[in-house]
Amino acid sequence: MGADFVCAVLFTIGLVLSAVECNCNGHPGERGPPGRDGLAGMKGQKGEPAVWVDGPVDPSMLLRLRGDKGNSGPQGPIGPKGYRGDVGAAGMAGQPGPPGPVGINLNSGQSASNQRTHSAFSVKRNTTRYPPFNQKITYQEAIVNINNNFVINTGIFTCTTPGFYYFTFHSVAKVSMCLGLVKEGEPEKIVFCDENTRNSEQVLSGGVVLELTAGQKVWLESYKDQQQSLQIAKDADARDVREKLIVFNGFLIFSNS
């Protein structure tokens, strides 16, 4: 009987404990702190190539590969001209260039102040008397006389710079006239004539290019034997008071020294 009592007590205690557990539910616990990072894994094995020996081409792998450079395409059309930019700042001065070739001395032994490479004159005669026949015509005024190569009292031009010269003259008169250019040392004379039959004012002009050497002379002469009119005798008379204008010019074209 004592054993049965013990069992009954234990059964009663179990029921009480069972009732207590059913009526007392607990709350979930708080989350614990995060754990530490794990260790690095081992390196993986090398992948397969884009083209297998016994298989097809892998399209995804080919897209990631760089192909060979292709040929250049044709040149496109030229675009429109752009706006002009602002002018930049001046650059630095360059280095001096090499010296030039040695020049040719055309006037050896002469200083610059003694070089006379220019020559020209223009003289005028305006009188009522007819110039003497077959004689050098003299003048009253020198309009231009560079280097004084022309002497108006003698009517002679003397060349100081060898070269080619142009000589010309103009005569205005109401009488018949014959004028000739004379170059020293030349037997032939260049003669120009104008026969005035109307007794009106006429112009007689002439010109020529001559090559002169240093010291050679040129002058203008009046001729009678070249005229065909008898009026020349009358014009030469001292009683003829009509004006007779003569202008004699000459200048150096270029020297050949």
What fold name goes in the CATH topology slot of the domain at 120-255?
Jelly Rolls
Flag low-confidence runs: 108-115, 228-238
How is the largest sheet built, in terms of strand order?
2-1-10-5-8
Task: State the shape.
Answer: rod-shaped
User: Which band does the percent of strand residues land in?
Assistant: 25-35%
Domain C1q: 114-257
InterPro entries: C1q_dom, Collagen, Collagen/C1q_domain, Tumour_necrosis_fac-like_dom
Biased composition (Polar residues): 105-120
Pfam families: C1q, Collagen
Structure description:
About 7% of the residues have low confidence. 13% of the residues lie in helices and 27% in strands. A hairpin with a 6-residue loop joins strand 6 and strand 7. It has a domain of 136 residues: Jelly Rolls. It contains 3 helices and 10 strands; from the N terminus they run H-H-E-E-E-E-E-E-E-E-E-H-E. A 5-stranded antiparallel β-sheet has the order 2-1-10-5-8, with no helix packed on it. It is an alpha+beta fold and 257 residues long.
Features:
signal, 3 helices, complement pathway, Jelly Rolls, 257 residues, five-stranded antiparallel β-sheet, alpha+beta
Short description:
With 257 residues, the protein is an alpha+beta fold. It has 3 helices and 10 strands, in the order H-H-E-E-E-E-E-E-E-E-E-H-E. A 5-stranded antiparallel β-sheet has the order 2-1-10-5-8, with no helix packed on it. Strands 3-4-9-6-7 form a 5-stranded antiparallel β-sheet, with no helix packed on it.
Any chance you could write out the topology, listing elements then pairs?
Layout: H1 2-23, H2 59-64, E1 120-127, E2 141-145, E3 150-151, E4 156-158, E5 163-173, E6 177-183, E7 190-194, E8 202-212, E9 217-222, H3 231-235, E10 244-255
Antiparallel strand pairs: 1-2, 1-10, 3-4, 4-9, 5-8, 5-10, 6-7, 6-9
